[in-house]
C-alpha cells in the first residue's frame, strides 16, 4: 500500500499548490453542513419573528452570504484553486427546538474537488446567522462544521450516519 502524504507540500516540505493540470475533468460534488445551537430564548424569539431581526431576514441573508463565500473560497483559503462554480445551494432549517442546520451543496466540472467551497459556504452562512442573532445572546454556538459527502475524484466520501 502506497504511503499517503500531505498534498500541499513539495519535495522539500515547503507549502505548494497542487498541480491539477494532468487530472481528468469530472463532475465534482460536495455537501457540507454546519449546526448552530441557540439558547432557548433566542430560538423562541427567532421563531416568533419569522426568522427576522432588525438586520433583516436571517435565513435569506445567510443563504446569500454562504453562496458568496463558496464562490470566493480561493481568496480565503491558501492553495485553493479558483473555480467557476456551476451550482451552489444552501439549505437552512430548524432542527428540534434550539438548533439550526445549514447545508451547502456545490457542483462543478473540473480537475479538483469542491469540498472547501462547500465547507466555506456552510460555515459563512452559519456565521451570518450568528451575526444576525448575537444581539439576543452571545451564547450561540456553531458546531459540527463537516463534510457530509463528495464525489467525482479518486476517493468518493460519504459520512456514516451517527
What attributes does this structure have?
162 residues; single chain; Alpha-Beta Plaits; alpha+beta; 28% helix; 4 helices; two-stranded antiparallel ribbon
Total helix count?
Answer: 4
Distance between the termini: 29 Å
In terms of per-residue confidence, which ranges show pLDDT below 50 for 5 or more consecutive residues? none
Work out the oligomeric state of the chains in this entry. Answer: single chain
Number of strands: 7
Could you state the CATH homologous superfamily? Molybdopterin cofactor biosynthesis C (MoaC) domain
Strand order of the largest sheet: 4-5-1-6-7
Structural class: alpha+beta
- CATH topology, which one? Alpha-Beta Plaits
Work out the count of structural domains: 1
Run of helices and strands? EHEEHHEEHEE
- In the CATH classification, which architecture applies? 2-Layer Sandwich
What is the CATH top level name? Alpha Beta
The overall pLDDT average reads 92
Largest sheet entry: 5 strands, antiparallel
Shape: elongated
> How much is the radius of gyration in Å?
18 Å
Beta-strand content bin? 25-35%
Specify the helix fraction band.
25-40%
Would you give an account of this structure?
The protein has 162 residues and is α+β, with helices and mostly antiparallel strands. It has one domain (36-153): Alpha-Beta Plaits. It contains four helices and seven strands. The strands form two sheets. The protein has a five-stranded antiparallel beta sheet. Strands 2-3 form a two-stranded antiparallel sheet. Strand 2 (52-53) and strand 3 form a beta hairpin. Helix 2 packs antiparallel against helix 4 (115-133). The longest helix has 19 residues, at 115-133. The chain is elongated.
Amino acid at each position: 500500500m502506497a504511503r499517503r502524504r500531505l498534498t500541499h507540500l513539495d519535495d522539500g516540505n515547503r507549502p505548494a499548490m497542487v498541480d491539477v493540470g494532468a487530472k481528468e475533468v469530472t463532475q465534482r460534488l460536495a455537501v457540507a453542513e454546519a449546526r448552530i445551537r441557540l439558547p432557548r430564548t433566542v430560538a423562541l424569539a427567532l421563531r416568533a419573528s419569522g426568522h427576522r431581526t432588525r438586520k433583516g431576514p436571517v435565513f435569506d441573508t445567510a443563504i446569500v452570504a454562504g453562496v458568496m463565500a463558496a464562490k470566493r473560497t480561493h481568496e480565503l483559503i491558501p492553495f485553493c484553486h479558483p473555480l467557476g462554480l456551476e451550482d451552489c445551494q444552501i439549505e437552512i432549517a430548524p432542527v428540534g427546538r434550539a438548533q439550526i442546520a445549514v447545508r451547502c451543496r456545490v457542483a462543478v466540472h473540473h480537475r479538483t474537488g469542491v469540498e472547501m467551497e462547500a465547507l466555506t459556504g456552510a460555515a459563512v452562512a452559519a456565521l451570518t446567522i450568528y451575526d444576525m442573532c448575537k444581539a439576543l445572546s452571545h451564547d450561540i454556538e456553531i458546531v459540527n462544521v463537516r463534510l457530509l459527502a463528495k464525489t467525482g475524484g479518486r476517493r468518493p466520501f460519504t459520512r456514516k450516519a451517527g
